[in-house]
Amino acid sequence: MELVRSQSPPGRLRFLIWNAEAVKFQESFEYGGSQFVPPRIPVGLADAIRLPTGIARCGDAAELLEQIGLCVSEYIDLAPEYVRLVSNFVLCTWFQDFLAVAAYLWVIGPYTAGKTRLLRLLHALCRRGMMASDISPAALYMVPSAIMPTLLIDEFETSSRAGDRDRLRLLRSGSTRDGHVIRGDKVYETFCAKVVVSRQEPSDAALASRAIFIPMLPTRKVLPVLDTAALQQIADRFQPQSMNYRLQHH
CA–CA separation, 15 vs 234, rounded Å? Predict the structure, then answer.
């Protein structure tokens, strides 16, 4: 049972029910005496999260990683070793809820290096991608608790301010499953895969040890346009394939 987005009516959350022989879409699902319904997520949050609308044929891991890598290489100027790391990160996000450690991808480089372009591409490729150009400390534990997304944070900068220190602490704790935040009588999770974009590596050594670093520099290559329409085409192609791969191998 997987959470997907309905095509008709558009945007509504529903379940994809899969049993290796057939696929069904349902508004609710009964199993073992329990009735399952899609989570109640605020409308703005639900709209911001990338969800597939179904599944499509996919190959094995090598084939899927190759196709993801070719897509990344087409739109982003990266050395082959970093294309491989980014591709593996993408596939890893589709199994994040089964892993003990959350993958962190840290993209560093100056302005005009194409970091945000890579972030937008990852939003189309990763499981439950959600972009944030600014994020509060509270959101770093409330959003993962709601749906465990792949959190994509643009232009992340730190200072000595209390809010920035809180963000760093929550990022550290969010890489393992025991990173709980307690507020009143509620317990929140901080665990989820994350991509962080900034101009420099974090000064926090503990946080840096949790990340895979992708350096970027301004490119002279003429790259294809990566507008909303192109991103939607990429998502329409890879989201259903990756979902199928997850269902076959989880």
Answer: 22
From residue 157, alpha-carbon distances to 86, 163, 184 in Å are 22, 11, 29
118, 76 contact by CB (below 8 A) = yes
In this structure, what token pair is assigned to residue 36?
């399952």
- Report the sign of the C-alpha dihedral through residues 206, 207, 208, 212, in that order: positive
Low-confidence residues of the chain: pLDDT under 50: none
Structure tokens at 69: 């890598």
pLDDT digits (tens, 9 = 90+) for 133-164: 888 888 888 888 889 999 999 988 766 576 67
CA distance 66 to 133: 30
* Maximum separation of any 2 CA atoms in the chain, in Å: 60
Q: Which of 207, 230, 249 is nearest to 94 (CA)?
A: 249
Whether the link from the prior residue into 240 is cis, omega within 30° of 0, is no
